[in-house]
Amino acid sequence: MTPVMSIETEIRPTTPKFASIGTSQYPVILAVFCGLLLISNIGATKLIEFGPIITDGGAFLFPLVYITGDVLSEVYGFHAARKAIFVGFALAILAALTFWVVQISPAATSWPNQEAFESVLGFVPRIVLASICGYLVGQLLNAYVLVRIKEWTKEKALWLRLIGSTAVGEAADTIVFCTIAFYGVITGGEFLNYVIVGYFYKVLLEVVLLPITYRVIAVVKKHEPTYGEPESVTAVPAS
Asked: Could you say which of 95, 184, 192, 210 has the lowest number of CB atoms within 10 Å?
């Protein structure tokens, strides 16, 4: 007598839930992401010092670039976040080239601020290279780590995804930027201070702003009709 093969229903782990980028929310978040990036890059041209703490002007806004990147990765996935990262990368290069063209263009005889312009927004190849390399490596790692953690945690432990991805992304960004931009210019303990303080400040700000990030992600998910695909249930033969 031929045995009858039974069929069991097994609920397999599902892929992470994401939303489509073909909605009204994604372009808005993309614009905010790029705007924060450009503003913080301009601010980063100035080194600032608060007592023993040495950092740059980008410290005020650049952590928000990572928070916005977290929103993109969490809600829309790695490919959508990567698209935003590449758009920001292209705009950062365009901004640098624009400032360079303006810098080398003849100043009007009635405008006495050429040296001031060059000292603040002048094209410095080393700083530009450091900025775009640090940004690209850090943001791609940030998005990748967040999505990989989400594959394991699904909709749970959002805090782990946000802090874990930022810790990795900011570490890569800070090390790459500081090394290319200021290694040899800032030396010894001052250089280490700049790197370490800058890194921990950015990660700490992510932790402090975690409740706001949670809220923003919840609102975006709520207003994305394509977010949250149903879990798949697959019938498999019993062994």
From this structure: 184
CA dist 187 → 44, 52, 191, 192, 233 (Å) = 19, 15, 5, 8, 59
Return the DSSP state at 218.
H
Phi, psi of 45 (to 5 degrees): -70, -10
The answer to whether the beta carbons of residues 18 and 225 sit under 8 Å apart is no
For residue 181, give both structure tokens: 């931009």
Span between the terminal Cα atoms of the chain, in Å: 18
**pLDDT tens digit string along 190-234?**
888 878 888 888 889 889 999 999 999 999 999 998 887 533 333
Tell me, what amino acid is at 163? I
Give CA–CA dist 70/67, Å, rounded: 5
Q: How many CB atoms lie within 10 A of CB 141?
A: 17
Pairing of strands 7-10, 234-237: antiparallel
As a whole number of Å, the CA-based R_g of the chain is 23
Q: Tens of pLDDT along 100-119?
A: 999 999 999 999 999 988 88
Beta-bridge mates of residue 237: 7
**Closest among 133, 156, 161 to 77, alpha carbons compared:** 161
Domain 20-104+117-237, second-level architecture: Orthogonal Bundle (1.10)
d(CA 58, CA 194): 13
Question: Rounded to two decimals, what is the model's pTM?
Answer: 0.80
